[in-house]
Design brief:
The chain is an alpha+beta fold. The protein is built from 18 helices and 20 strands. Helix 6 crosses helix 14 (648-717), helix 7 runs antiparallel to helix 13 (578-645) and helix 7 packs across helix 14. The protein starts with a strand and ends in a 5-residue tail after the last helix.
Length: 908
């Protein structure tokens, strides 16, 4: 698509505004809140919203100054797929859509209202809502190319929406259907049966036919297992009953034998109470000996730990002293560096202020030169307009309103010829009077109330002749006595018609009337030419032009009253190209400001380091004092411990004595313990074991009797009638279901394999399609960032995920969401530009950017402008930019449109 022009009428602050778009670049600039983004809003609503849309968003487009409801209109002329169209959409009061096709410069209406909206939707390949306003995700490919302020980020995949489908990402040659709508239909057709068995994440669908059959098989298998277990249970119970009945006499015999053995051993047991008392006394003596050894070991450990602690504190205190000295020297050095950097900052600040003043002065000189130029132009306009109006006044004085058409003039000529013809016909029917004066007087002759004196007179259709003779004279009258009253009446009527027309324009003849019309046509032509020239010079009244001239003169006076500083007078010449001078001064200002910012950053870094060192210095000082106090405390603690326990050597002697005594007590205790354990493991242990054995055997006997009774009861009530036939029927059903399960498993695995294969092919071909776009994005990014970022990752939705940064460790990368605002803007632009180039292979494209590159540095912005200019040349792109920073974007090739001038109908 390429835009030609857009016209807004009663649209927010635009009463009637028209903007013509250049074929390459159009930069629409002006202050904020002056209607730039409104133009983009009108374009989007004109293309993507239906005229019958309602709601607050639609109501809000009518002017705030309008009273009551009003019609807001947008008209757009554009070329799409090498065909030129014009669309007109009206919202609110008189809603409606008109779609024209322009052929040979003439717009022909091809559709209107709902049909026009639908046809426009198909032309734009957009997915618009049936009701309400649209959002950028429904704009098709335009969501990649048009970036309003509220939609600067790249389109992302949402539920049911894949923005890459609108880009026609097709591979060359065979296999191109993989990413086209045709492939989507194939996927949808496979997805329906696939979804019966699996979810989108590949997990099994619990409601699939396969699962239902498995549940039926599982139910039948459980039933089969229960039937088999029921049969086995009866058989097992019978076998168990027989075995239990056989074992019961043996259990009774074992109980009798164990009781006899217990009585025999009980008679043999001796009294062992005295041995147990000696064992307890020996155990108490051993514990006391161990406690004494532990006390001596603890005292020895305290003495050693105290000495070691004092030694550690001494080492730490010495290390803190050395660190304290080093930090003190480093702090003094940082103080000197900070003082030197402050002087450097002051010098650079002065330079920045100088170049700020130079840039400011250059802008004032530029504005003054522009104002002078405009004054000259306005003066020329005013002089010429005055001259034109003077000529118009002269011509208007000469102008006589004449509404006579050529047909009417021809009609008058015909009437004149009719009169002449009628007169010729009446010559033979008329009267001729020849009045000749006599020698002594004359005759008074009156024919039809016309007096004839000293002349010859002929008339036609005479009614009467009157002659009086105050003197002598000679009168000759010849007449045929035939009347032609009707012809004369006709002649009179014709004369009356002709004379009435002549009287309108104050002429006496038709020839004079012809000359009058010719002269008035020339005057009117000259007036039209002068009026056209007047409109071409300026439509505004001359008073408004004079007011503008006075305002400009006031500005010149204001500029003249601005005192120029010596450095501006010395370094800013007044006879150069001020645009280049401003650019030069601004670049110098930026250069020195960057240097100042760098110095300030270095100063802040030194200051930060100095503060850190001061804090560290204070911490080390506090640590040194603390270590000294802890050292003194450790020495005092060591002295107390030595006073309590004596020296280490004394404690080691005591430890040897305590260990020797402990060993002796331990030997005695172990001898008594062995003697007691032998006795306990012998008869005493055997008595306890036999008593427990008797209790256990009696318990088994009781349980055996109870189990026999239960088995007899369950065997009596168990019946196998019908169990075998039911088992056979269940087995048959299982075989049928297993066969069905096998078929369903084959079908499910087939669909799963097909979906996985399509997904793999889709990923492979998407990679092949995205690679050229990725390379284009990478190429643009490397050029803009100066090879700072060379490696870039895009996912299959064309969204940047991560990129590498040169100058860091190998393998380090930066996540897209963690990058700076400026870098994000650059990356988003690179993707949009690459997509625009891709789409240009199908048709010329228009890239629309609203207030772009807010966080991008001027150096990178210049490179972006170079890339755009190159893309316009190589790919026939059209770029439309809305901005309030026109000076920064002055490198674009194309038109610069002031939005305020466009609103007033002024074309710059």
């Amino acid at each position: 698509m390429k835009l030609h022009w857009v016209e807004l009428e009663n649209w927010r602050q635009h009463t009637k505004t028209r903007i013509d778009f250049a074929k390459d670049t159009t930069v629409i600039y002006g202050p904020n809140e002056k209607g730039k983004s409104t133009v983009l809003e009108a374009l989007s609503r004109g293309f993507f919203d239906k005229s019958n849309s309602h709601g607050n968003d639609i109501k809000s487009i009518r002017p705030l100054t309008a009273s009551g409801n009003i019609t807001s209109t947008v008209r757009i002329e554009f070329t799409l797929n090498e065909t030129r169209y014009k669309v007109e959409k009206r919202f609110n009061l008189r809603e409606g859509t008109l779609l024209y096709k322009i052929e040979d410069g003439t717009p022909n209406l091809i559709n209107q209202d709902r049909q026009a909206d639908e046809q426009l939707k198909q032309l734009l390949e957009a997915d618009l809502p049936s009701k309400g306003i649209s959002n950028p995700s429904q704009w098709g490919a335009f969501q990649w190319l048009w970036a309003p302020q509220e939609n600067r980020e790249l389109p992302e995949k949402t539920k049911g929406k894949d923005p890459t489908k609108s880009l026609h990402l097709e591979t060359k040659g065979d296999g191109g259907i993989i990413t086209t709508p045709k492939f989507q239909k194939i996927q949808d057709r496979i997805q329906r049966p696939y979804s019966q068995y699996f979810y989108k994440n590949g997990k099994n669908n619990p409601n699939s036919p396969l699962t239902k059959i498995e549940r039926e098989i599982e139910t039948l298998q459980k039933l089969e297992e229960n039937l088999i277990n029921e049969i086995k249970s009866v058989d097992t119970k019978k076998q168990n009953l027989e075995e239990l009945l056989k074992e019961l006499p043996n259990i009774e015999k074992k109980i009798i034998d164990t009781k006899i053995e217990l009585k025999k051993i009980t008679d043999e047991v001796i009294d062992y109470s005295s041995i147990k008392a000696d064992l307890n006394a020996s155990e108490a003596n051993l514990k006391e000996a161990k406690r004494k050894v532990s006390d001596v070991e603890n005292a020895l450990d305290e003495l050693k730990n105290s000495a070691k602690k004092v030694e550690t504190f001494q080492e730490n205190e010495q290390e803190a002293r050395e660190k304290f000295s080093r930090l003190e020297a480093l702090r003094e050095q940082l103080d000197k560096n900070l003082e030197q950097k402050m002087k450097e900052i002051d010098e650079k600040a002065i330079q920045v202020r100088n170049y700020e003043e130079l840039a400011k002065d250059a802008r004032i000189l530029w504005r003054k030169s522009i104002s002078i130029k405009k004054i000259d132009e306005l003066k020329q306009k005013i002089d010429r307009i005055k001259e034109i109006e003077s000529k118009l006044e002269i011509f208007k004085k000469q102008e006589r309103p004449i509404s006579l058409e050529n047909e009417c003039l021809d009609e008058l000529m015909k009437k004149k010829m009719q009169i002449e013809g009628l007169k010729e016909n009446l010559k033979l029917r008329g009267l001729t009077v020849n009045n000749m004066p006599g020698e002594e007087g004359s005759l008074n002759v009156e024919v039809d109330r016309d007096k004839i004196k000293d002349e010859k007179f002929s008339v036609t259709g005479t009614d009467c002749v009157r002659i009086t003779s105050p003197g002598l004279g000679n009168v000759i009258i010849k007449a045929k006595l035939m009347k032609a009253q009707e012809i004369k009446i006709e002649i009179d009527n014709l004369k009356e018609i002709v004379n009435s027309e002549l009287e309108k324009y104050d002429v006496t003849s038709i020839d004079e009337l012809k000359e009058l019309k010719k002269s008035q046509d020339k005057i009117q032509q000259k007036i039209n030419i002068l009026n056209a020239e007047r409109v071409g010079i300026d439509k505004r009244p001359i008073a408004e032009l004079i007011l503008d001239l006075e305002n400009l003169n006031k500005k010149i006076i204001e500029y003249g009253n601005i005192e120029r500083k010596n450095i501006s007078i010395k370094l800013n010449p007044t006879n150069v190209d001020f645009g280049k001078l401003i650019s030069k001064r601004e670049k110098e200002e930026v250069t020195y400001r960057d240097a100042l910012d760098k110095s300030i950053a270095e100063r802040d870094s030194i200051n930060k380091e100095l503060k850190a060192k001061i804090e560290e210095f204070a911490e080390i000082k506090a640590e040194k004092n603390s270590l000294f106090d802890e050292l003194e405390k450790a020495r005092n603690d060591e002295r107390k411990i030595i006073r309590n326990y004596g020296s280490v050597e004394n404690q080691e002697v005591l430890l040897q004595t305590a260990k020797s005594n402990c060993y002796k007590r331990k030997t005695e205790y172990e001898a008594l313990k062995d003697k007691y354990e032998q006795l306990e493991k012998g008869s005493l242990n055997k008595i306890d074991r036999l008593q427990e054995q008797i209790e256990h055997q009696e318990q088994i006997f009781r349980e055996q009797r109870s189990l026999i009774d239960q088995l007899k009861g369950s065997i009596n009530f168990a019946s196998l009638d019908g169990t075998y036939s039911k088992l056979s029927e269940t087995h048959s059903k299982l075989e049928i279901l297993k066969e069905r399960l096998e078929n369903e498993q084959i079908r499910a695995e087939s669909y799963k394999l097909l979906v996985e294969t399509l997904q793999k092919e889709h990923i492979a071909i998407m990679s092949a399609v995205i690679s050229p776009i990725k390379e284009e994005v990478k190429k643009s990014l490397v050029y803009i960032t100066g090879s700072l970022h060379e490696n870039l990752e895009l996912n299959e939705d064309l969204l940047p995920t991560e990129l590498s940064e040169n100058g860091f460790d190998e393998g380090s990368s930066l996540k897209f969401e963690d990058s700076s605002s400026g870098l994000k803007e650059v990356l988003v632009f690179c993707v949009r530009l690459a997509v625009a180039k891709h789409l240009s292979e199908r048709d010329s494209q228009c890239l629309v950017l609203d207030d772009p590159f807010v966080h991008v540095s001027q150096d990178r912005l210049n490179k972006i402008i170079e890339l755009i200019n190159e893309a316009i040349k190589d790919w026939n792109l059209q770029i439309v930019v809305f901005t309030h920073r026109q000076m920064e974007l002055s490198g674009f090739k194309g038109n610069m449109v002031n939005i305020q001038s466009a609103k007033m109908g002024i074309i710059e």
